[in-house]
Design goal:
Blueprint: E1 19-24, E2 29-36, E3 42-44, H1 54-59, E4 72-81, E5 86-98, E6 101-115, E7 120-123
Parallel strand pairs: 2-7, 3-6
Antiparallel strand pairs: 1-2, 1-5, 3-7, 4-5, 5-6
């Protein structure tokens, strides 16, 4: 798995975040998420229309489920409120890779709407 280096000037709010890249789907496209120790949810594909740094959000890769044998829309919705911002979307499953670990049929959220988050979130709580 190759990794791209992302270099951008970050605002004060963004500089307090920690990021992690993982790959989703059978073609292993990298997706960048913020690490959140106060949440237990994983969600991707923020809504770039409601963020502080839109040009950064627009450049990041997104989860696109191309393989219907591994990706599945669970038809269940989620809604999460944070101290700053919120997100809503639908749960899906697909194969993920984080470092050398491969996870099959991992459930995660795919955002339909989000605000104040240029990245998705990987909750560790």
């Amino acid at each position: 798995m190759s990794q791209r280096v992302l270099t951008k000037t970050l605002s004060k709010r963004q500089s307090d975040h920690c990021w992690r890249m993982f790959c989703s789907g059978t073609r292993s496209k990298p997706v960048i998420v913020s690490i959140d120790t106060g949440s237990s949810e994983l969600w991707v594909n923020p809504d770039c229309g409601n963020v502080e740094v839109r040009d950064l959000c627009d450049t990041l890769s997104r989860h696109h489920p191309e393989n219907p044998t591994t990706a599945k829309d669970l038809k269940n919705t989620f809604s999460i409120n944070y101290d700053l911002g919120s997100t809503t979307g639908e749960y899906s499953t697909d194969n993920l890779a984080i470092g050398g670990a491969k996870i099959t049929t991992q459930q995660f959220g795919v955002a339909i709407f989000s605000e104040y988050n240029e990245y998705g979130i990987m909750g560790l709580g």
